[in-house]
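[job 0412] stage=complex_fold ligand=coenzyme A status=START
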Amino acid sequence: MSDQSLMFVRTVSKRDVQAVRDLLVETWHATYDVIYGADRVTQITDEWHSLAALEARLDVPMSEFLVADDGEAIGGMAFADTVDDGKTLMLRQLYVRPAFQGRGIGGMLLDEVEGCFPEAARIRLEVEEANAKAIAFYLAQGFARIGEAKGADGVVALIYERPIVWA
Ligand SMILES: CC(C)(COP(=O)(O)OP(=O)(O)OC[C@H]1O[C@@H](n2cnc3c(N)ncnc32)[C@H](O)[C@@H]1OP(=O)(O)O)[C@@H](O)C(=O)NCCC(=O)NCCS
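[job 0412] stage=complex_fold status=DONE, emitting structure tokens
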């Protein structure tokens, strides 16, 4: 049984930034050490997920920066912005701490992020080809592969998309 109901999703504020960085460092090592190597993951997270880089996201126009919080710890985060005049929602990051994975938190963050952009017609993301667990998650969530791109360090990234259908 999932205990996702203990988590609530809310917008990130400045006081969360250190906890979000800690989550990203932990989850990036757990996910990507096998792809990029631990030292490179440390380098990338120091650069991309520095406190200054994360704080700067709080001001990105047409974006949403969310965390799943149980009152004691932050279990997951999502960051998305838009392209194509707001029609395409780009899910830039979706990370659930290893100890919290498989409880519905990723799905909850995905649904919440979509709900923040009523003008969007589709949601798109890039995922490393070697990240089989995340690809299985996105397929289970109704995404389909639409293309390919170059990720960090030239690693192949696959582009996935799903339409946003409003009930
Ligand atoms: C990928 C990730 C965000 C998914 O979040 P999560 O909270 O673990 O996933 P959920 O528990 O919400 O799963 C939702 C659905 O996807 C399915 N799913 C999740 N992981 C799966 C897997 N490895 N294989 C198959 N299906 C999977 C679940 O069965 C569930 O379906 P259900 O609701 O019908 O039962 C999370 O595992 C994560 O942060 N992984 C490491 C970082 C990462 O790779 N992020 C993505 C970068 S692009």
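The mean pLDDT is 94.
[job 0412] exit 0
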